[in-house]
């Protein structure tokens, strides 16, 4: 299961619309969750609306939270999206088999068994989470809260039975005009993400849409590499006696 978890505090102002980018992610099978981080007042009506629309277009969920609630919210959203992904798959299969995708339409005994299996899948399925952190100037006072949230998310992912991998990006990318920068590639060493925070330079514009597209491309490259290896392994197996 693939997720992008976007942590931001406001409106994008450079490049492609993040709502369009989130729709691209959904089409690629990647859910986009968005946490809007509040501090000393609200993020503004336009910022809140954009956050909701990004998540809706990306097939994910959105929350507006104060900095002190951020860690709990990040964990909750990650788990909830896993459950939603499994529910959609189960409902699609039920509709194919029974003509109805509603779990509530099943007999009580069958329904409880389906729910139990869904819970098990939520814990045992492989999960990839790409963290995309808004590092624009207005996020600087919130960096400590973001760091705590990521640390707690690492602990939550480590507690899962299934394989969990994380990658970390921030935007804007830096002084050379990069729209997004990768800080950590896919890893199941979930303690490694903490080392990136001292390196973050919080400044610049907010190119949320281009940053989302770069993370989508990163997912594509991983999938292409995996398919290439599988095809190579398949060809090599033809020559094994």
Query: What's the shape?
Result: globular
CATH homologous superfamily caption: von Willebrand factor, type A domain
Which whole number gives the mean pLDDT? Answer: 78
How can the largest sheet be summarized? 6 strands, mixed
Q: Write down the domain tally.
A: 1
Number of strands: 6
**Strand sequence of the main sheet, in spatial order?**
3-2-1-4-5-6
User: If helices are DSSP runs of H or I spanning 4 or more residues, what is the number of helices?
Assistant: 6
Low-confidence stretches: 224-241
Examine the coordinates and then state which fold CATH places here, giving the name of the CATH topology.
Rossmann fold
Organism: Paenibacillus sp. BIHB 4019
Domain VWFA: 1-86, 128-241
Protein name: VWFA domain-containing protein
InterPro entries: VWF_A, vWFA_dom_sf
Properties at a glance:
Rossmann fold; 6-stranded mixed beta sheet; globular; VWFA domain-containing protein; disordered C terminus; alpha/beta; 241 residues; vWFA_dom_sf; 6 helices
What do these coordinates show?
This is VWFA domain-containing protein. Residues 1-86, 128-241 form the VWFA domain. With 241 residues, this protein is of the alpha/beta class. The chain has a single domain, classed as Rossmann fold, CATH 3.40.50.410. It has six helices and six strands, in the order βαβαβααβαββα. The chain has a six-stranded mixed β-sheet, with helices on both faces. Helix 5 links the parallel strand 4 (127-134) and strand 5. Helix 1 packs parallel to helix 2, helix 1 (18-27) runs parallel beside helix 6 and helix 3 (70-98) packs across helix 4. The longest helix is centred in the last third of the chain and has 30 residues, at 208-237. It starts with a strand and ends with a helix.
């Amino acid at each position: 299961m693939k997720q992008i978890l976007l942590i931001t505090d406001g409106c994008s102002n450079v490049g492609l619309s993040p709502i369009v980018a989130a729709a691209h992610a959904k089409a690629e099978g990647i859910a986009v969750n968005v946490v809007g981080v509040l501090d000393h007042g609200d993020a503004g009506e336009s910022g809140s609306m954009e956050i909701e629309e990004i998540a809706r277009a990306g097939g994910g969920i959105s929350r507006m939270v104060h900095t002190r609630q951020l860690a709990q919210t990040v964990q909750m959203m990650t788990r909830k999206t896993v459950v939603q992904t499994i529910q959609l798959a189960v409902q699609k299969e039920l509709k194919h088999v029974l003509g109805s995708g509603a779990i509530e339409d099943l007999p009580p005994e069958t329904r409880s068994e389906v729910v139990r299996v869904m819970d098990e899948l939520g814990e045992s399925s492989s999960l990839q989470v790409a963290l995309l952190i808004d590092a624009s100037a207005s996020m600087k006072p919130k960096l400590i809260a973001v760091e705590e949230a990521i640390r707690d998310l690492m602990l939550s992912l480590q507690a899962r039975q299934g394989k969990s991998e994380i990658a970390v990006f921030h935007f804007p990318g830096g002084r050379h005009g990069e729209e997004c920068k990768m800080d950590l590639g896919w890893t199941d060493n979930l303690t490694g993400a903490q080392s990136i925070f001292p390196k973050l330079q919080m400044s610049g514009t907010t190119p949320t849409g281009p940053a989302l597209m770069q993370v989508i491309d990163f997912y594509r490259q991983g999938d292409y590499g995996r398919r290439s290896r599988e095809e190579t392994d398949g060809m090599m197996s033809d020559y094994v006696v």
